[in-house]
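so im writing up the methods section and need the Quinolinate synthase record in one place, dumping it here so i stop losing it
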Amino acid sequence: TEEEMKKRVTEIKAKFGEELFIPGHHYQKDEVVEFADSTGDSLQLAQAAAYTTATYIVFCGVHFMAETADILTKKDQVVILPDMRAGCSMADMADIYQTERAWVKLLNLFGDTMLPLTYVNSTAAIKAFCGERGGATVTSSNAHKMVEWAFTKKERVLFLPDQHLGRNTAYDLGVPLEEMGVWNPITDTLEYEGELDNVKVILWKGHCSVHEKFTIENIEHLRSTKPDMNIIVHPECTWEVVQMSDDSGSTKKIIETIENAPSGSKWAIGTEMNLVNRIIQQHPDKEIISLNPNMCPCLTMNRIDLPHLLWALESIENGDIINQISVEDYIAKQAIAALDKMLANA
Ligand code: 13P
Ligand code: SF4
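--- predicted struct ---
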């Protein structure tokens, strides 16, 4: 039963003490967050991974986050992902072969004028690709800082794999839409309007299937039915949605904005369902809803549940570890160069 499972998780946590560390992303289910030693957004969890001395890190999040944790921890620390099916559809939209092919074609178009940046929501191989070329990883919390930094290094930026975070960030920094192109990894072509030479930001054609579900129709409906609602969305939402909202920001910024908002204020939030539900529970003094009334879960985040968490913990107890995430040394070495720049600018 659920009670028995919770009891076992508590027992194993007590038994291993400081030897065991359970980071949990804000999008995880309540039944998992309950046992997390640290909760946070991608950046906070990467920082926590870089800091922990625990031998076993049971990562409650998705695959790219566990890879990042493995890269940032020492060799003798073991990172476990409780369910290997917990991937990220956005990270899967850029594979290393497509990226290498794109780079060759882009070098032909633009010469050595580009710096590659990748959202942490990407495979370790893509992070290594960026690190090898002087680029960096970014998170939604420090994307502005990192894109600004990239422009001090090169004339152009290739932004992988989320076109929306890239577009929203570059636009905020003053790059007009006409100066952004979109790299289509299926047709291997650059989509742009106007002069090729004017393209300053090359956006990879990837997206988050959860955040794309918040639409301008949702906003129009809300503006006409509840005009006094403040709308805040994650920058993985489309440019149009971000422009029509009152505010946008990383998971951390959304949480802090609602925390600091006055009692009685009204909010519609455009981000993942588990987090929105938790914010609603934590702020009974405010009127909070999801911007999309259908609520948008991240199905892969949700694959981590109490039975999988217990399964991972029992594997440590039995000495027969399951689902260890282990990034190959030659990839980790290059990826760390990209991650270190992000952490230095956190
Ligand atoms: P952050 O945790 O950086 O806000 O990213 C959101 C997300 O989609 C994580 O997968
Ligand atoms: Fe990936 Fe989107 Fe899920 Fe985050 S919310 S893990 S970006 S699919």
